[in-house]
Design goal:
The protein has 149 residues and is of the alpha+beta class. The chain has one domain. The chain contains five helices and four strands, in the order ααββαααββ. The longest helix has 6 residues. Bound molecules: iron/sulfur cluster. The site of iron/sulfur cluster has 13 residues, from helix 4.
Length: 149
């Protein structure tokens, strides 16, 4: 299949190959954080509580291949509806492309730099705790507003 050099901004998400799809993820790790939803206000709140499988140093899933069997409520981004995409941070390439918006200049596919999303000073590294250390009833105490989420 022929692609333009900027396939990430021109090819609809559903037409991306598996490799192209994976390349859109900048590795920020924010989709692996617990979120709370205010259904009345239709608002999503991020917490700084991470899935037990999130590697706190790299920001990657420590068992990506088996994540759905190990964590039954892990959401498959590829199967998300556009409404469910609002659970992703505003900076996420999948959310941006689902809204027909271009990727930002800092995105690894454009800047050419290896993804540093997880290590960026405004990102989540060093600010998160594992769900194994937080009772579910206490999640509200960990609500946080990210700069771009
Ligand atoms: S929020 Fe988006 S860019 Fe960040 S890790 Fe998840 S899928 Fe990748």
């Amino acid at each position: 299949m022929n692609r333009t050099a900027t396939y990430w901004n021109t090819t609809p998400l559903e037409q991306l190959s598996a490799e192209e799809w994976e390349s859109l993820c900048d590795g920020c790790g924010k989709c692996c954080l617990h979120k709370l939803q205010d259904e009345e206000a239709d608002e999503v709140f991020y917490t700084r509580v991470a899935c037990r499988l999130l590697d706190m140093k790299s920001g990657s899933c420590s068992d990506y291949v088996h994540r759905f069997s190990r964590v039954p409520d892990c959401m498959d981004v590829r199967k998300m509806t556009s409404a469910e995409m609002k659970w992703l941070p505003a900076s996420c390439a999948y959310r941006l492309r689902a809204q027909s918006k271009p990727l930002p200049e800092w995105h690894p596919l454009i800047s050419g730099h290896v993804s540093t999303g997880f290590k960026d000073p405004y990102r989540i590294r060093g600010r998160i705790v594992s769900e194994t250390d937080v009772p579910e009833a206490d999640l509200e105490d960990y609500i946080i507003r990210w700069i771009d989420a």
